[in-house]
Task: inverse folding
């Protein structure tokens, strides 16, 4: 079955393409390369011995979308393409709404025109508000705190509206918690441009000597060790979550929402220690003020994905850190 994977050369998209190929699906990748490199294709090929068709282009290009859907006889779409930097979304909201919301609308219009009914969308735990104690299930009230999170929720809502208007559609939102880790081969991983915003890529750049020291954003939270607690999920588990969702949703009309997380919370210090163990030395770190907008602690209730999709996350934070370190140490400057 042929699947259009938008954003397929990005971090999560590339890992999902590898697992799609390994499990017998046929991904066709569309990516504008705004935040990824074409050399990712060579890595997918090295791992799977298959080079998926790749089109450089933008999801907002309606005629391109229709052409790809028709020419490749696409049966379902996994939609990763989007911008994801929270701070940037505050500074450039129109760019985020245009890329993430308008881009998704153009994609869904193309699907409707070409009769493609199944969509799996990259949503985020960032759509939830902070009014509920963790773990968070899919019924936690939504209330995103920034334009990035709002762009994700808007697309969720548009997908729900579309399934009301056309009950034959199958629209699935996957709400990821904190995706980290890398392919166990060390051939693929996260390759952020510039200074990483997120904990794991920053830590791994400290480990490889590209950054001096990790800044721990606050140690006075109401958590067991005072540092922020999150639900880290290995990107390979996440990739498998997409395939489980696709297998379930294709042919199962309606609007489906699943949390994809491990169900466990880990602190910044837990991650720092696990990474130190993986790379064989204690990593330099300094205490810094809290980062504005950060919550103390949240993690997923992933039981809906387990009971409906039969999916659960299997990898530990040690696996996440070992695989990230293998990727970072073999590719200190990321992809060529
Ligand atoms: P990424 O930036 O590595 O991948 C996104 C890909 O989409 C990139 O390759 C980029 O070039 C491409 N892209 C962006 N806009 C495009 C457009 N208009 N047309 C075509 N291609 C475009 O990010 P990622 O971490 O792999 O995230 C994938 C998706 O998952 C994103 O939608 C992101 O918002 C969502 N998500 C990510 C996280 C996370 O922490 N990484 C968490 C929750 C949700
Ligand atoms: C994790 C913990 C920080 C960096 C973000 C987005 C969210 C989602 C996932 C897309 C927190 C602490 C971090 C550092 C630190 N993305 N930290 N020093 O903020 O939970 O979620 O990525 O949908 O929308 O907001 O992830 O990795 O930035 O932070 O101490 O240099 O690490 O305070 O407690 P976050 P993160």
Result:
């Amino acid at each position: 079955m042929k699947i259009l994977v938008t954003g397929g050369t990005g971090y999560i998209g590339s890992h999902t393409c590898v697992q799609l190929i390994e499990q017998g699906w046929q991904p066709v990748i569309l990516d504008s390369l705004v935040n990824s490199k074409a050399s990712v294709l060579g890595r997918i090929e090295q791992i799977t011995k298959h080079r998926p068709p790749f089109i450089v282009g933008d999801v907002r290009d309606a005629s391109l979308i229709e052409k790809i859907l028709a020419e490749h006889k696409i049966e379902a779409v996994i939609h990763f393409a989007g911008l994801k930097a929270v701070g940037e979304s505050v500074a450039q909201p129109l760019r985020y709404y245009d890329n993430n919301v308008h881009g998704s609308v153009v994609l869904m219009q193309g699907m409707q025109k070409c009769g493609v009914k199944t969509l799996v969308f990259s949503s985020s735990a960032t759509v939830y508000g902070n009014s509920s104690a963790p773990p968070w299930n899919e019924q936690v009230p939504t209330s995103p705190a920034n334009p990035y999170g709002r762009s994700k929720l808007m697309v969720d809502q548009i997908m729900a509206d579309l399934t009301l208007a056309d009950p034959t559609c199958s629209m699935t939102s996957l709400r990821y918690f904190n995706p980290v880790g890398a392919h166990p081969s060390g051939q693929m991983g996260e390759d952020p441009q510039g200074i990483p915003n997120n904990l794991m890529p920053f830590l791994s750049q400290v480990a490889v000597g590209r950054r001096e020291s990790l800044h721990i954003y606050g140690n006075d939270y109401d958590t067991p060790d005072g540092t922020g607690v999150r639900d880290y999920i290995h990107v390979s588990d996440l990739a498998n979550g997409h395939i489980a969702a696709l297998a379930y949703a294709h042919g199962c009309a309606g609007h489906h929402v699943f949390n994809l997380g491990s169900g466990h919370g880990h602190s910044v210090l837990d991650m720092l220690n696990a990474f130190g163990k993986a790379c064989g030395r204690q990593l330099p770190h300094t205490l810094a003020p809290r980062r504005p907008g950060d919550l103390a602690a949240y993690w997923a209730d992933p039981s809906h994905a387990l009971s409906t999709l039969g999916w659960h996350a299997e990898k530990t934070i040690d696996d996440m850190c070992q695989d990230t370190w293998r990727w970072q140490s073999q590719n200190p400057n990321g992809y060529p």
